[in-house]
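Researcher: First entry.
Model:
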Amino acid sequence: MIAPLRRAALVLAVAATALLTLATPAAAHGADAPDGTDYRATISGVDPDHPGLTARMVEAGARLELTNDTGAEVTVFGYSGEPYLRIGPGGVYENTHSPATYLNRTLAGETRLPAEANPAAAPDWRRIDDGPTARWHDQRTLWREEAPPAAVAADPDREHRVRDWAVPLRAGDTAGAVRGTLDWVPPPDPYPWWVAATLGFLLIGAAGLAPGGTAAGVRALRGVGALLAVGGAATVALTVARALDTGAPGVGGTLAELVTGQVWTLLTGLGALAAGGYALARRPAADFVLALAGACLTLFAGATNLAALSRAIPPAAGPATLVRVLVVLGLATGAGAVAAGLLRLRTAARAARPTPHPTPTP
């Protein structure tokens, strides 16, 4: 059996290895999806008002989504008035000659334009999806400058209307647009959230001071296990909220997003639930399991979502305050379980040391 101190070292090694291994895919997934923003993009309406033609903002307002269930084709126009997207019964097509086809692939809009990008050229349509929905980063709905608007810089503590925007389209033979607004929303004060996370970490970690094998130690182990399970459940809820915010269609689309774009956070939450149950059952090596699951929860559920504590619009469906509560629960219970597990392993290692016998006097 692995000695308690070696288990503690293994907790840190496994967590660090997992972080290094998974950091690149996670960063790549988030490259065109923000961790949070202080700019709120809102749809005002779609003109013409056709039943089945709907629009919404997804990914914390980073993408505009247009769904066409009208049975007729809808054409979306790019930045020079050229045809950009065609959405209809045959699926979604993009015009390879439209600069918007390339600029809208990333949030920053810095894609290098190929030679064939010419808004004056006749459209060259390429099918990119067989469904009725298109999603894209549209620069008209975003604030892409490094500095905030002048009104925001002068008074950043209240909301400001940045601009009204319109994305032109044609539905059948009728010209129209998706219309909306862009507002600045003051970010929250992250200090109270950090205080809550720190207090939770200290209180849960202190449970590791209770001696193992005693009644108090058993209660402490079960208490930490139960709280870690709460953190795991909060992380699963946060993961579902993030999947919903991507605009994934229906239950099937949400499940697909959970097992692709949100898989590591989802597995972390489920692992914390399992580890909490393992500790509640007082299974062997429960201290090690708590510490390992807590480290993963801290890294992949807490640290990766810290921006939600300081941004007005987090990338998750639901009230922003609830999203922050879920992040704090994952962070506090994860870090607390690490501290409690390592303290209990250290205590067990000390108890396992042989007591030296005094040398007899001749």
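Researcher: Second entry.
Model:
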Amino acid sequence: MRKFVAALAAAAALTLYSFAADAQSYPERTITVVVPFAAGGPTDTVTRLVAEAVSKDLGRQVIVENVGGAGGTLGAGRVANADPDGYTQLLHHIGMATSATLYRKLAYDTLNAFEYVGLVTEVPMTIVGRKELPPTDLKGLVDYAKVNKDSITVANAGIGAASHLCGMLFMSAIGTPLVTVPYKGTGPAMTDLLGGQVDIMCDQTTNTTKQIQGGTIKAYAVTSPERLDVLKDVPTTIEAGLPAVQVGIWHGLYAPKGTPAEITDRLSKSLQVALKDPNVIARFAELGTRPSSEADATPAALKAKLESEIARWKPIIEAAGQYAD
């Protein structure tokens, strides 16, 4: 028995030594950041900009891998089960919080299956409509939606997507259920909005700003507390009389549970450097957003955000009765 216990202790010590050695030399090879959505979408755009800047700071290539499906839970599940060595990470948006309620049989524990690295950015949403939609302002859109609730269509990129969540919040705020049309991604949803096949959509500025600026869709409001520099003519939901629709699609960086603290700390510091990169700041501004502050790009800030957002969205989702399983 003593030999067995001694062997276990030796094995444990060897494992701890191995982790410590790996943490000190990290990173030694290419790092993969999993985006749990399709390429070309808003979260993918944010991730690729940050990955490039992080790569420069770490001195190693950081590649982006898209693992879409099931509202982001497939990609998140993959990272939850990955080796906790810092070479596989997850960049997820607000869906990390809402999936805890939307999916009643998740394969991982949202709060406890990951180590936290830090917040990346919080992207405002826009309420937009097809170019030929009759209402000219948000109040008119709300009145129009209530009268035509059985025929007006609201597009989204699938259950759990940012556009789905914002659409639910919009319908909750106006007290009127509308006809929702889910798509397999933001791209197809925007294509049909541009073509006039659907009426309205609520989506991130990273996906709608260029279309609004080009006049190919109609903008009714942004969901941020203040107007955006890139969309100065678009009022906030507060100004437009719908203050309950305040939502930002925040993004955070995670690592598998058990990743050594030395590595998550190194990643957090690298993220902070990346978010000060002039190219990241400039590109984020073009997309209607800005990088998270140094204080928010930390493990503690991300964990607190996730916990508060799970609590915020749980009653909204339960009241809507819309689940993904």
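Model: Note on the second entry: The chain has a mean pLDDT of 91.
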